[in-house]
Amino acid sequence: MKKKWGVLSLVFVITLTGCIPGLERAEEDVIIVEETEEEDVTEYIITPTIESPDHFYRNVLVDGTYQRSEARGTTAHAMNNRIDIDQFELGLMEIASSVYEQEGYYFQEGSHLSGELINSWLRRYDEDDNPAGLNPAPGSGDSEEKRLADKPLIISHIMEHNYYTGNDESGVNLSGVVIGISLRSVYYFRTEDEDGGYYFHEKEVDPNDALEHGEEAAQKILERLREMEGLEDVPVTIALYNEEARGSIVPGTFVAMAQAGSGDDSLGNWEAINEEFITFPSSQAREVQPGLSDNFTKFRQDIETFFDTNVGVVGKGRYKNDTLQELKIEINLQSHGKAEIVALTQFLSGKVENTFGNNAPVYIYVESVNGAEALIVQIPEQEPYMHVYR
């Protein structure tokens, strides 16, 4: 049935502002679209803008409900650790922000790629059983191990994000699709002998081979998107993510992105992404970031002096184009009294800016065997914010 869309009305709801510096909450836009030929009224809500260093997108809610991707939780992805999964999703939003500015676009999880479809793409190519597979068919060899290791499964996950625009005349419209393709750095697999015994193997994936395979898969995905209803003319951005090995304490990074304009059937030139995560303390940190490494060591010594004992302190710095984007520090304590936690939080709040400068956000998480104890956030050009959990 064809539906006529009535006049779009815009309602502003004033929300309470928070008390965290730099995290003020703006007005909430509620867009109501009335269907004139049916009694049902679909209400599209744009979540409030929250000012933060991450500049997160506002979300499109339908009838007040967050729209989860049907593929979430059903795709048989095999990313090797939780931090890779989180970074893949959040990093994909950051990729999008270089194309779709946060003030004019709204985010919604993917709605065009189902879990069943993505699973078929993640499996190996088979001319008869799975012609949609984007991972290579097994190689040649006398053993199963040789056949699998010769042609490793390179693509582990595919994620879709949708970006909408809207105004008080035309409502919300899909204006951009961003696809993330996660590439393995290590292929973990198992084989089974005739007695039912399992053998576990791993094979490093050459990063150049992974990149080449990812670019080829990206072009195939674009062609398939263009055949889907509603995606014939929508701009598409595809980004490639390189995972870290299992057990890594830092996540992988996005390594390349390419775009196809409205209606384009081929991706433009691939743009390299220079991103890196560095752990403090480490030999790598001392070699490539000696200044920050020395400051981190001093910071850790100050904490150990405060407690007069050794304390677990680990930092993770994210760099883009060799410039620090953010530094996250985790402090793990044994059980301590709240008065001591309050004193430590005050002590660290006075140290953070003088120790690490004021060029990038610094997040300090204080935890103990009892859970989260305190949070300190230092945003450039702002006073540090601290919170002690009760």
Automatic annotation (TrEMBL):
Protein name: CamS family sex pheromone protein
Origin superkingdom: Bacteria
Source species of the chain: Salipaludibacillus agaradhaerens
